[in-house]
Design goal:
The structure holds 2 protein chains of 2 kinds. Chain A has 4 helices and 2 strands; from the N terminus they run αααββα. Chain A is mostly helical. In chain A, strands 1-2 form a two-stranded antiparallel sheet. In chain A, helix 1 runs antiparallel to helix 2, helix 1 packs across helix 3 and helix 3 runs antiparallel to helix 4. The longest helix of chain A has about 30 residues. The N and C termini of chain A lie far apart (about 85 Å). Chain B has 2 domains: about 100 residues, Beta-grasp domain (Ubiquitin-like (UB roll)); about 140 residues, Alpha-helical ferredoxin (Fumarate Reductase Iron-sulfur Protein, Chain B, domain 2, Orthogonal Bundle), CATH 1.10.1060. In chain B, the strands form 2 sheets. Chain B has a 5-stranded mixed β-sheet. Chain B has a two-stranded antiparallel sheet with strand order 6-7. In chain B, a hairpin with a 2-residue loop joins strand 6 and strand 7. Chain B is elongated and about 70 Å long. The chains are: A mainly alpha, B alpha+beta. At the A-B interface, helix 1 and helix 3 of A face helix 5, helix 8 and helix 9 of B.
Amino acid sequence: MSNRRPYVRPMDNWWMRDPFFVRYMAREFTAVFVAAYAVVLLFGLVRLSQGEAAFNGWLQYLKTPWMLVFHVIVLATFIYHTWSWFSIMPKTMPIMFVGGKRVQPGTITGTGIAAAVVACLAVLVIVKGMHP
Amino acid sequence: MADTEKIIEIQVLRYRPEQDKEPVLQSYKVPFTDDMSVLQGLQYIKDYLDGTVSFRWSCRMAICGSCGMMIDGKPKLSCKTFLREYYPAGLRVEALAHFPIERDLMISVEDFVTKLESIKPYIIPKEPRTLEQGEYLQTPQQRDMYEQFSSCINCMLCYSACPQYGLNKEFIGPAILALLHRYNADSRDGGQAERLNSLGHTDEGFWGCTAVTYCSEVCPKGVDPANAINQNKMNSAINYFTRFVAPGGADK
C-alpha cells in the first residue's frame, strides 16, 4: 500500500501573489474600457442615423463633465493598453530575420508603439483640418 | 581568508504526508558565506540541522533542472540563486507552485512527464534515409528557428509561473508546448501534423495560453516559451478556418 498523499495547494487570489500577475490582470482589464468606448462610438453611429439633431445631442452629451472625466480615464487605460500589448508583441511574432540578423524584441515593440503614435497624430491632424 | 560567518534564516515549507495535514513552515538558522547557493543552504540544513528535510538536486550548475523551488515566492533554480541576495531579511523556500507536493520541497512530476511524452519530443524524419545518404543538412538560419527552444532543461519553473496551468491541469503548459514547437520548427522534422492536430491546435494546447508571459521571465535558460506558443496562434487560427475547405484539412 502506498503512503503517498500528494498535497494540492489552492489557487485562491493567485493574481495577487506576484506583481507580474497584477500587471497582467491590469492589461486584461483595460479591454473592458476598450469595449465600453466602442459602445459609446456605436451609440454615436446610431444617433447619426437618426438625423442631425440627434447626433448633435450626442455630441453635447460627450461634453458634460462626467463624460469628460470618463474620457480622461479611458485615455489613461488606452495608453496602458497600447503599451502593454505592444510590450508582448515580440512574443506573438515568429522569429524574423532582416539582412541576416534576427529582429530584436525591442525593435518590434518600438515599431508597434511608433505606429500607434503616428496613427494618433494622423487622426488629430485630420480632425484639426476639418475644424480649422 | 574565509569570510566572516554570517547567519541567515531559511524558512522551509515542510510537508510530511505521514504526519502533516497540510504544509507548515519550519525555520532554520544557517551559517553561510557569500559564495553559497540556496541549494547549499538546504544541504547544510540536511547535513547538520535536520536530516528529514527532503529536496531534489543533482548537478549544482543549472543544467539538470532538478532543484527548482519557490524562493520568496518566485520560481528559481536553488543552485543558481545565492543566499547573499536574501541577507539579512532571510528567505522562504517552498515546493514549486501549481504542482502537488509529494514531500517537503519535492513535487509530483507525473503530469509533466506524461504530457512530455505525448508531444513526441524527438525528430520524426521527413523521409527515411540510409547511412549512405549522409547526414541531414541544415543552414544556420534553419537552426536559429528552433535553437533557443531546444535549451529547455525540464526544470518546470515555467509551470510554477503559469497561472493557467495552476488553474487548469488539462493545459499542456509552457515548456512542453515550447518543445512541441522546437521539433515542429526543425527543418529535418516531419511530425508537424500529428503534433499540431491532436495537441497544439486544441484548447489544451496553444489556446490554453493567455499570454501572461511570466514563463519566459523565469526561464533560467532563455527558452522564451511564451514566444514558442504564441507565434503558433496565427497559423492555428488559419488552420481552424480553412480546415473545412483545404483538401485533407485538419483531420488528416
